[in-house]
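Q: Predict the assembly, please.
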Amino acid sequence: MALIDLANPTRFLSLTDRVLPWLATATALVVIIGAYMTATAPDDYQMGATVKIMFLHVPTAWLAMFCWALMSVAALGTLVWRHPLADVAAKAAAPIGAALTLVCLITGSLWGRPMWGTYWVWDARLTSVLVLFLLYLGVLALYWTAEDPNRGARAAAILVLVGAINLPIIKFSVDWWNTLHQPASLMRLGGSAIAPTILHPLLVMAFAFFLLFFTLHLAAMRNEILRRRVRSMRMMKAQRA
Amino acid sequence: MNSLGPHANFIVVAYLVAIVVVASLIAWVWLDYQAQRRALGELEKRGVKRRSRRKA
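A: Predicted assembly structure:
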């Protein structure tokens, strides 16, 4: 099957039906391995066992940003090429991205209390991630309240592209401003500053979360295609009546 | 398995939140799929067909 064939929703549906069981199985296996590695990971010499919160917080933070980047590419597809699956991809990703950003914020807050002595500070990193969460809610509101789905999709795509400005702000906030949040420990010049005994569970958990995201996203895209079919069939039925 | 130390509550709550949110996402996707399949089935039972199917 050529890549261009996937632009056809029917062909995309048949692909998701074949791929989803394998993807879900792989996700479950990697989640089990990641959970075992998390449970057996040693404590950090400074943070103690609270380092285990990192195995949730960091992957969800990466996915919160990745999901918005994916939605930005889809938004271009909606506005520029009017690709039939572009808006489906963005709309399906938005609730997943919002939920993962919420997990990132809550786990970060629960990690901050014992380490920093506070659940929340208005520093640049925390505030920019909160802004990302609010942007997700804004996109969802546009999708869920628009009477005309096409107008809602275009408005959401514009908001997604404007919101993409926030991604480099989140990434570089710890470098540009003096923040309570620590600077990058993994993706930095000179290599990772994390010990392998903690780095390996982190990477496996990140892989598990990415697999989970792709599984949920594909399944949600399938649902959205079916929802649009139901809508068009109901409209045809109403026209005939 | 290591002991979770003096901050065990924070660690347990963080994992519970993650489990509840991920389980809710999985349930939402699954229930939505069932609802759309049911709606499509009912429409097809009433003789409503998509344009692409009618041409075929």
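The mean pLDDT of chain A is 91. Helices of chain A lie at 9-40, 51-81, 84-116, 124-145, 149-163, 166-176, 196-240.
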